[in-house]
Amino acid sequence: MSxxxxxxxxxxxxxxxxxxxxxxxxxxxxxxxxQVVVVPSAMSGETNRLLGLAKEINSQPDGRELDMLxxxxxxxxxxxxxxxxxxxxxxxxSYTGWQVPVKTDSSxxxxxxxSIDDVRIRTDLDQGRVVIVTxxxxxxxxxxxxTLGRGGSDTSAxxxxxxxxxxxxxxxxxxxxxxxxxxxxxxxxxxxxxxSFEEMLEMASLGSKILQIRSVEFAGKYRVPLRVLxxxxxxxxPLEEEMTSxxxxxxxxxxxxxxxxxxxxxxxxxxxxxxxxxxPDTPGVAYSILGPVAAANIDVDMILQNVxxxxxxxxxxxxxxxxxxxxxxxxKTQVAPAVCAREIVSDEKVCKVxxxxxxxxxxxxxxxxxxxxxxxEGINIQMISTSEIKTSVVINDKYMELAVRAxxxxxxxxxxxxxxxxx
Amino acid sequence: MSxxxxxxxxxxxxxxxxxxxxxxxxxxxxxxxxQVVVVPSAMSGETNRLLGLAKEINSQPDGRELDMLxxxxxxxxxxxxxxxxxxxxxxxxSYTGWQVPVKTDSSxxxxxxxSIDDVRIRTDLDQGRVVIVTxxxxxxxxxxxxTLGRGGSDTSAxxxxxxxxxxxxxxxxxxxxxxxxxxxxxxxxxxxxxxSFEEMLEMASLGSKILQIRSVEFAGKYRVPLRVLxxxxxxxxPLEEEMTSxxxxxxxxxxxxxxxxxxxxxxxxxxxxxxxxxxPDTPGVAYSILGPVAAANIDVDMILQNVxxxxxxxxxxxxxxxxxxxxxxxxKTQVAPAVCAREIVSDEKVCKVxxxxxxxxxxxxxxxxxxxxxxxEGINIQMISTSEIKTSVVINDKYMELAVRAxxxxxxxxxxxxxxxxx
Lengths: 423, 423
Known about the structure:
The structure is a homodimer of 423-residue chains. Chain A has 423 residues and is of the alpha/beta class. Chain A is 35% helix and 27% strand. The first copy, chain A, has twelve helices and 20 strands. In chain A, the strands form five sheets. An eight-stranded mixed beta sheet of chain A has the order 3-6-2-1-9-13-14-12, with helices on both faces. A six-stranded antiparallel beta sheet of chain A has the order 16-17-15-18-20-19. A two-stranded antiparallel sheet of chain A has the order 4-5. Chain A is globular, with a radius of gyration of 23 Å. The interface between A and B is large, with 37 and 37 residues. Chains A, B: Substrate binds at residues 47, 74. Chains A, B: Its EC number is 2.7.2.4. Chains A, B: This is Aspartokinase. Chains A, B: InterPro entries: AceGlu_kinase-like_sf, ACT-like_dom_sf, ACT_Aspartokinase, ACT_dom, AKii-LysC-BS, Asp/Glu/Uridylate_kinase, Asp_kin_monofn, Asp_kinase.
């Protein structure tokens, strides 16, 4: 008997019929003797519907009230799933974030989980019930409802799995695993059966939409084995088959059978680039620029500071395109005058493309193959950022698909591992 | 400065535009220096949408999960109203039932309020905020979400008004007051400017849909002055005018200017009649019949037991038509065998029509005018029930409109008070 967490995305919960399919799948695990906790997202479209209403009222609605509103989506889908399980004869009970409780900080719309009480969940599991915990939400110290931000249900699932020490956390979604890149852009993309935690972390942070990055961080920190698998298969698929399907995200490198040099190509179009030109290069200037940005709860991604020329430096960074206007406003009114920048240059028509692979650690020449490939396609690189297992470039966003396809081919990701070229 | 509770129904909250109108109206009261607590219903259609999803999954969904689901409607509308107020520059904050908390018993889908903590509400009011409390819902001792049943937001509003000792509880709705009867059935129906609490109680319990009966009971118990008024007037109507519009439900009889013999005609089509024939007339037989019905949480309305003939009696009662199948099943399988009833006769094509009036107390002949009027229209009376201030009859439901119109005319309700006939 295992203790398993299932997470179902909005598409999997998208209609009454699909919810009943989820219930059948959960019932199969329950019947096989497993203890199951389910973390569902809101029915697809519901969160957008709610946020749409909010935006009609105010283009920048109050965070506390927005969370109060958005949290209803998961509460409704969780209750419906409990009903579906009960009507299939499976004892089940749903809980909201505050009922568990899932305690978070007070950063409305992007709260972080601080702790999860496992008493209620364990009591119900021990009584043979399937426990449903609403994804995406929690409660802060003052008793306000908080949400974890888009894709937060993944994080909820992993956090619950950690709290109850689950054997595995299964992320059911509308794709059948993690691919070398998005198959909609590169039809030759291949599913990975195993991927390392570090690679998944880079893939997630770089715009691969399968898992929210924080869920992968969480899983890494607490070493929760994650599996991404399809919710669109027959819910009554033999359990043995389902248990080994999809992509396993592992923490043991020797388990990684396909230790390719480059495992995948990630990309993100939601990028915007901002440069402060000719900033006097004094100690602490980076903090003077990014401190106020962080204080405004804006996530900064790439940061690039050129070497100093005549006592001044150019300071560039990227933010999510949704935060672009707000960031620019902040820089113009507060930051640029304070640090005496000569001007602000910005571009919201950029994208980021990255190659990711644990194998890069021990192989030279990977980055240069990337740059050569882009150069041969006539694509200008605007920014470069590297880490141990990834190299990212910022380019004009009109070249995004072209770059991804070219890199996917150059690194042989459309071929069997054994036939891939070694740079 | 007064302390006022506003309650808005689903129609008043039915769209973003209407929610903004509600916000404008509330802002007007706030700007005039009043402390305002608002209790909104779910956006019209939302509760039906949610219950529809539940019914698709299971025709008799689990009560706990149903409440978990249904409570989301008011949570969403409350958050939207808070956003609308904030965007109009009015400080506001919304609270769910469990956040206040509104404590109830554990009768899912028809819970009763046990207590309301006023600390959070008062703290916010004292800080100049408008406080929004989700209607319809609460939390039981085990921390489960409960709902108060259809129309429960009225009860929430009155309960909140009681808890904070509000000066008046304003029930904004899509009609402009309480009428002598439903104007859709009798176009000559007239609005009452004042109605006594007792009359309103009878009107509500008899199917007048304006207020949930429990809210009137609550208001009566704690003597909260209630006013029913229109939410469809210009939200920026002069406050003085709005404060005296609609119908005031009063507890002081001398305030009632139009002390008519009969104040109004109430009716309800959602009735079903069940008779147990030839039940041996032993002591305790009524309890043997109705005990199991009450235990199944079925509300019984009229109860009628004829005098005993040859040691047996016929025992009749009415239930809401929605509970009819369930009640009949219960009687057939459990009750009838236990009390040795000869047979069960039932009819779900009946309705109830009632005349209501405080003046009936001191006037004879009111009931006989009612019976004569129905007889002249050729309508057969199946059951009769009376109280101090009302007389109800059960008739075939095809005669409902005819009966209401005839009685409305016979008691002169379409005329000024001074010109009404005295029976």
